Amino acid sequence: MSKTVLVTGGGRGLGRATAEKLAARGHRVLLTARTRAAAEDATEAIQRTDPDARVEPRWVDLSSLEQVRFFGVAEAERGEPIDVLLHVAGILQTSKERRLTVDGHEETLAVNVLAPFLLTALLLPALERSPSARVVTVGSRLHLPGSRGAPVDFDFADVQLEHGYNPERAYKNSKLAVMWFTYELQRRLAGRPITANAVCPGFVPTTAAASTRGLMRLFMAHVLPHMPFATSVDAATDSLVFTAVDPSLDGVGGKFFGECHEIDSSAQSHDVAQAGRFWTIAEHLTGLA
Ligand SMILES: NC(=O)c1ccc[n+]([C@@H]2O[C@H](COP(=O)([O-])OP(=O)(O)OC[C@H]3O[C@@H](n4cnc5c(N)ncnc54)[C@H](OP(=O)(O)O)[C@@H]3O)[C@@H](O)[C@H]2O)c1
């Protein structure tokens, strides 16, 4: 069955490769990038290699709540169903400086969590037009305690990391919050034909290189992809496509997937009280409350 899939982060990286794979399998893709030029370039490039690909460009800067609101409302008002909302766009900051968005929010939290949170809410009418819809968020195993680098350390009194900012901590905290959002969304959607799952693509140095600089970027792009622990773009996008459209997941929600099977997320990600607390904070920060 052909689906209509809205993919964010479609301009480059895993989002772009996933959009291409979905289109090659006959799905209609709403390829969403930060700018109109990026969305149109990616769409044209896909259609050049596959003239039958049904890809339509969309654009929104996810670091601006106003842009997300404008885009989400306009997309829902088209009156068409969206079968799958696949949130791929995400950032891991290269700068050690804490960066704020136009709304004054810490940028990692804003792009990785607040934008998907608001966009999902605004696109619910379009998802409800589908007989069986899915919301898929791209998480990361880095939200697990003990993962390499600065530890995950979510402080509800300082969600914007005004104190103790570290780009890795911001990233891991955001990916924990993505899990809370996904699981809580699944609980709130109970009884409706919409499911919510998260997926980890694995460690994909080829695309993750974009979040590094200098020698590290060269190392990520050219050396790490040959290591046994690295995941190829092809394998990573297989996982994303599986979670987005595989018929075996019809009606399955509230799960975390990797390598096309269910994987464990952290104990903290399953904490219902913390998920509810984060949901309330996200509602306030996005103006949905
Ligand atoms: N690669 C890995 O090893 C890995 C592992 C686990 C999870 N992930 C997750 O997988 C997802 C994709 O990662 P990737 O490796 O493909 O990263 P990437 O190559 O850096 O791509 C990130 C994508 O997000 C988009 N994006 C960033 N900020 C945006 C904004 N403000 N508005 C709109 N789009 C924005 C980028 O668009 P621009 O071109 O406009 O910047 C780009 O398309 C992310 O959520 C990441 O956290 C990746």
TrEMBL record:
<dbReference type="InterPro" id="IPR036291">
    <property type="entry name" value="NAD(P)-bd_dom_sf"/>
</dbReference>
<protein>
    <submittedName>
        <fullName>Probable oxidoreductase</fullName>
    </submittedName>
</protein>
<dbReference type="InterPro" id="IPR002347">
    <property type="entry name" value="SDR_fam"/>
</dbReference>
<dbReference type="Pfam" id="PF00106">
    <property type="entry name" value="adh_short"/>
</dbReference>
<keyword id="KW-0560">Oxidoreductase</keyword>
